Amino acid sequence: MTSQLSADATQALPTEPTGSSLQLLADLAWERDAGRSELYFEGVRWTSDQLAERARRLSGGLREAGVAPGDRVVVCMANCPEVSVTYHAIWRAGAVATPVLFLLSEDELRHVLTDSGAVLVVTTTEFLAKVVAAAAAAPGIRGVVVAGERDAAAVSAVPLLDFAALESAEPAELVDRDPASLAALLYTGGTTGRSKGVMISHNALSASAWAATATSYDPVHRTALLPLPLSHVYGLMVSVMSVHAPEPGVTVLMRWFDAAGWLQLAQQHQVNASPLVPSMLQMLLQQPIEDYDLSALTRLNSGAAPLPRQVIDDFGRRLPRVEIAEGYGCTESAAIIATSPLGQARPGSVGKPAPGVRVRIELPDGSEAPTGHEGEICVAGPVVMSGYWNAPEETEKAVRGGYLHTGDVGRLDADGYLYIVDRIKDLIIRGGYNVYPRDVEDVLVQHPDVVSAAVVGKPDEKYGEEVVAFVQLVQGSEVTSDQLVAFARQHLSAVKYPREVRIVDAIPLTSVLKTDRKRLRAQVAAEASTR
């Protein structure tokens, strides 16, 4: 297990960031590192100087394309160096990065483009057809920026701009923004309708990255392996931690996670640490990890979903030198609420409130719960969102009395460690990604043979949870479960569509005529436990 952060390392950390935009901090980090920071991606090495120059030039190209301060620019790309270059170029232009998972369906992407009022989309060739189709019906989109080789003869309903051509512009000067202004607009699923935009300021994202650095930085951790999607709030936060690291390091970036590939890269680059989600850890345990030289590996950080204790125990048995450190956060808190201090991870706990973050456990009557008692986890501090985009009523519901109400149940022990007990909301976390039942139900009831639908998660060894749908059909319908799965797959992303649809006589309801998801969850959980 890794030793605790040394006093010298703690003193080397910068003070909590306030009063500076994220891009100004990045510029200072680029100047400080002077090319010593490195990024490896698919066999190619990039220095911080090279990436900084690309970002400055791309920012100039974006401005020539009409991007103005405050404009939203959607980024729909698989992991690659161009993602980070694009983020910094957007911030340098004073605009707002709007990352979306490339797994989104065309319908879901169109909603983000329309709701955000985005002016451009940046993508890669493999997602171009979907992006163009979504952008064609989104007012305000002026063009799609394409990275990579594409068919020059392809006809598009929206103007196509070449990433490389924009990157050949003259380097742009920094448009320094108010730190309280938006840095990112991140869309998260809603229980009452379509996904909502979460407004994250420069201060919030910077404070989140700083807090993560302050609790996990160690000079020994020179090389990190990053398999998280950079479009997810967790990956976004991790990708900007370097602006606060006292010493430059090496990042090995994966296009997307696969367990065998992760092990090969960890051995090849003698990786010291890696942020993961529980399903990734579970997939790694299915591999012959003892056959790889992981002697340099000292810490694995787990977030985005609850980590089963059995996974921690299995890693402890097979890789006893590696610390498994859990953390906790949400999109509305810029990915961080609690972290496990270096060398002080406590199994079953997600760590202590992150530096600068205040956690309050609230009882149903609004009072603060005593130590050890369960209640809703409420959060305050600079990491909290500015609000939901164009949704003041939703914002007022979520942020009350100066605290973000997470909808999760937890407790604090006498040492200040936080434990997640349950989720108040009906959120399903599949492979570290959020799936909201309403999003899936709204699609299923669009089928002409479906009267009503209810969606819950069931325990799954590979993904943590799997999406299960219960549907009631119109009388006399002969539609099959497989046909309904295929229908949902056409309209939902690969993460969201249900792998299992159960046809029932009626959807169970509570006494107040709401869908009884508790009963359905108990049913699928009981079935899973008997297998």
Describe the structure.
It is globular, with a radius of gyration of 23 Å. The N terminus is likely disordered. The chain has a five-stranded parallel β-sheet with strand order 4-3-5-6-7, sandwiched between helices. Strands 17, 18, 20, 21 and 22 form a five-stranded antiparallel β-sheet that branches. Strands 2-1-11-10 form a four-stranded mixed β-sheet, with helices on both faces. The protein is built from 16 helices and 27 strands. Helix 5 packs across helix 6. It is α/β, with parallel strands linked by helices and 531 residues long. It folds into three domains: 131 residues, Rossmann fold, CATH 3.40.50.980; 223 residues, ANL, N-terminal domain (Rossmann fold, 3-Layer(aba) Sandwich); 102 residues, GMP Synthetase, Chain A, domain 3.
Observed structural traits:
531 residues, Rossmann fold, 5-stranded parallel sheet, single chain, 30% helix, alpha/beta, 5-stranded antiparallel sheet, GMP Synthetase, Chain A, domain 3
Fraction in helix: 25-40%
Count of domain modules: 3
Q: Label the CATH architecture of the largest domain.
A: 3-Layer(aba) Sandwich
* SS-based class: alpha/beta
Our Rg estimate from Cα atoms comes to 23 Å
The CATH topology of the largest domain corresponds to Rossmann fold
Instruction: Enumerate the spans where pLDDT stays under 50 for 5 or more consecutive residues.
Output: 1-15
- Let me know the number of strands: 27
Distance between the termini: 35 Å
Largest sheet: 5 strands, parallel
Number of helical stretches of at least 4 residues: 16
Main-sheet strand order equals: 4-3-5-6-7
User: What's the oligomerization state?
Assistant: single chain
- CATH homologous superfamily of the largest domain? ANL, N-terminal domain
